[in-house]
Amino acid sequence: MSDTTSRALSGTTDEKRALRAGLIGLGMMGRHHARNLQALEGVDLVAVADAFGDPHGAAPDHDVLPDVEALIAAGIDYAVVAVPTQFHRDVAMTLAEAGVHCIVEKPLAFDVSEAEEIATAFEDAGLVGAVGYIERYNPALQEMRRRIADGQLGEIYQIVTRRQGGFPARIADVGVVKDLATHDLDLTAWVAQSPFADVAATSTRRSGRRDEDMVSITGRLEDGTITNHLVNWLSPFKERVTVVTGEKGALIADTVNADLTFHTNAEATTNLWESMASFRGVSEGDSITYSIQRREPLATEHEAFRDAICGDTSNIVTMREGLHTVRTVEAVLESAQDRSVVHLDGSALGG
């Protein structure tokens, strides 16, 4: 932990000064980080950096610094890294060497070797490192995860996600797997609290770009849960749905509207005589759409990382988890290319 962070966390609550935050990358995602950092209680956004300036006017009260070294020189406690994926490794490693906590926009790195290097560097330095998987902080998925942990679905059988929509002109360096499917692979392992063990994928290119723009993924988690993920940016409608099916029913999260619905398996509690006790049927039961407090997911993500620096790491996406997701993403791309089932070592999943 840096000396500046130690000073920020010492003393009584009234004596603690605000954490000094820095942001590198002021593009499409960076501008939203800037807005949230400037509104975050207990944090001061003291410096921003981007080699191309501030095209969206996200931080009009700040001089735009040229690079991460200048950001560190401003005396920051932690940094938000929102540069293109290809630069994640160099920026994150520089921050680790300087003793600065950081949250890196998803995915953690461009490939597994870079992700391993970053995660290890932050762990060895005793720094808080996280990955910005904003979907985890959608109120519908946060509530879904809480209810599953409380046993509402009983044993989990299957997790299905659908992430479809129009083409994002901002994406130029990766395909739909690294840009969008990475969200589904992360949130699936998190919801089930089990890493991926196997994946099989099929992808295609229809937009004339180098990278894939449509993928279908079938997976199996280490706990035996089977999964399916349909992802593309070629659909004329937007869909963000996660369906978790278990022995007691199914939870459906619509993260576009932050809605969560529960469909009860009406036969789950049927009393059966001994010879039939091993057979549990399924039939349509009651359904309910829950009333959820709808907060901006990015605001919740920033609060979780601030709290992690102050000692509560319970609600962040750790870099070790981010490494496992990068490994799963690469397995998906390998499977699609080779038309094979790829087996993963899930030991990288932590938290």
Automatic annotation (TrEMBL):
SUPFAM superfamilies: Glyceraldehyde-3-phosphate dehydrogenase-like, C-terminal domain (SSF55347), NAD(P)-binding Rossmann-fold domains (SSF51735)
Superkingdom assignment: Bacteria
Keywords, alphabetical: NAD
Record bears the keyword Ribonucleoprotein: no
Any single Pfam family the record assigns to this protein: GFO_IDH_MocA
Domain GFO/IDH/MocA-like oxidoreductase: 142-251
UniProt xrefs under Gene3D superfamilies: Dihydrodipicolinate Reductase, domain 2 (3.30.360.10), NAD(P)-binding Rossmann-like Domain (3.40.50.720)
PANTHER family: BILIVERDIN REDUCTASE A
Protein name: Dehydrogenase
